[in-house]
């Protein structure tokens, strides 16, 4: 591999290209004043575009790390991988597992998964298994898709990584998100924001950064009860996760459906092709900054340059969710189609 010009050669070129960090740090982009109403208050808002990893989603990082942590001896025994996921985790595992010698990936999903998401998973070669248990299972419940995947993983030749408790989840975030953020923004960083799905990203990233600078505030984002946003978990469900986050996350903001899609749409039209779980982070951050300003707390977050530097973590692109924007946002948000 010619590292300087990113040429990957030889029989293992694809595997080397897919390895986390092979392309270097993903970009961090500052938002303009049109999306940052606190510019005049000395607040700067950045987004870390994790969709610039090879599989275009942040879940490819823990997926790779979880597979990498399996011993070579154990890998030889695994013919079937199974995971409870209908999104980026199982999409990434389906691709990456082949490079670890595992040809069969089974995704345990719920009956309500939209057809376009099923097609995407089938497109990359995932086998779909529909669970009819609890549609929103807890990590340690004995009913629902997470439990179904665990039981299937105990069959001979099968393996369940169990992303909700797998240490590789948090390790990947620490190594490939936290370290990069520190290298790129370093001691300037005041607030880091992440949506909460398994809590791997926020706990791994947040712990690494707080070890570097205990004054960095970690803001978690969950889905407001009664709302739907693909990827993260709800404000009640986050308290039942298997990865411990409460000693790392300083505050959690719950966001409803419309602001998540609306903020995502604004980022998309700026040229930053991010999904709704990224939009919910920007919405949460702006809500919290409004609160800090009202309570005169921005001064407590200023770095040595007198600025409040914020960064939220874009998880993926908007492409898997295009239909959802038209369902969750009013027609006025989109140009009309006219016949000539």
**In whole angstroms, how far apart are the ends?**
53 Å
The CATH architecture classification of the largest domain is 3-Layer(aba) Sandwich
CATH top level class name of the largest domain: Alpha Beta
Biggest beta sheet summary: 6 strands, mixed
Count of helices? 11
Rg computed from alpha carbons, rounded to a whole number of angstroms: 20 Å
Number of domains: 2
Structure description:
- The protein is α/β, with parallel strands linked by helices.
- It folds into 2 domains: 13-56 and 171-331, Rossmann fold (3-Layer(aba) Sandwich); 70-160, Rossmann fold (3-Layer(aba) Sandwich), CATH 3.40.50.
- 35% of the residues lie in helices and 16% in strands.
- It contains 11 helices and 10 strands.
- It has helices at residues 13-18, 60-68, 72-75, 88-99, 115-124, 145-152, 167-184, 200-212, 257-270, 276-294, 322-328, and strands at 28-30, 43-49, 80-84, 104-109, 127-130, 158-160, 189-195, 217-223, 251-255, 308-314.
- A 6-stranded mixed beta sheet has the order 1-2-10-7-8-9, sandwiched between helices. It has a 4-stranded parallel beta sheet with strand order 5-4-3-6, sandwiched between helices.
- Helix 2 (60-68) packs across helix 4 (88-99) and helix 9 (257-270) packs across helix 10.
- It is globular and about 60 Å long.
- The relative contact order is 0.14.
- The model has no long low-confidence stretch (mean pLDDT 95).
């Amino acid at each position: 591999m010619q590292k300087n010009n990113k040429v990957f050669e030889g029989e293992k070129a694809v595997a080397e290209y897919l390895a986390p960090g092979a392309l270097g740090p993903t970009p961090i982009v500052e938002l303009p004043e049109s999306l940052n109403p606190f510019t005049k208050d000395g607040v700067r808002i950045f987004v870390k575009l994790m969709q610039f990893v090879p599989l275009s989603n942040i879940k490819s990082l823990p997926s790779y790390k979880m597979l990498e942590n399996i011993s070579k001896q154990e890998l030889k025994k695994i013919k079937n991988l199974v995971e409870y996921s209908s999104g980026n985790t199982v999409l990434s595992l389906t691709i990456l597992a082949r490079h670890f010698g595992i040809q069969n990936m089974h995704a345990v999903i719920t009956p309500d998964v939209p057809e376009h998401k099923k097609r995407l998973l089938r497109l990359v070669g995932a086998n779909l298994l529909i669970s009819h248990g609890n549609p929103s299972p807890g990590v340690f419940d004995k009913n629902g898709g997470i439990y179904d995947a665990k039981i299937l993983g105990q069959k001979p030749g099968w393996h369940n990584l169990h992303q909700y408790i797998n240490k590789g989840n948090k390790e990947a975030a620490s190594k490939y998100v936290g370290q990069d953020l520190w290298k790129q923004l370093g001691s300037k960083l005041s607030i880091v924001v992440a949506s909460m799905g398994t809590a791997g990203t926020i706990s791994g990233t947040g712990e690494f950064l707080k070890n570097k600078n205990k004054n960095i505030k970690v803001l978690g984002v969950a889905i407001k009860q009664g709302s739907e946003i693909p990827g993260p978990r709800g404000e009640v469900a986050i308290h039942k996760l298997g990865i411990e986050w409460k000693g790392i996350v300083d505050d959690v903001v719950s966001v409803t459906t419309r602001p998540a899609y609306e903020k995502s749409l604004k980022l998309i039209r700026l040229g930053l092709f991010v999904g709704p779980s990224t939009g919910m982070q920007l919405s949460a951050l702006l809500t919290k900054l409004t609160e800090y300003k009202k309570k005169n707390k921005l001064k407590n977050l200023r770095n040595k340059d007198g600025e409040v530097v914020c960064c939220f973590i874009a998880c993926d692109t908007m492409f898997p969710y295009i239909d959802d924007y038209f369902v969750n946002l009013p027609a006025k948000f989109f140009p009309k189609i006219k016949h000539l």
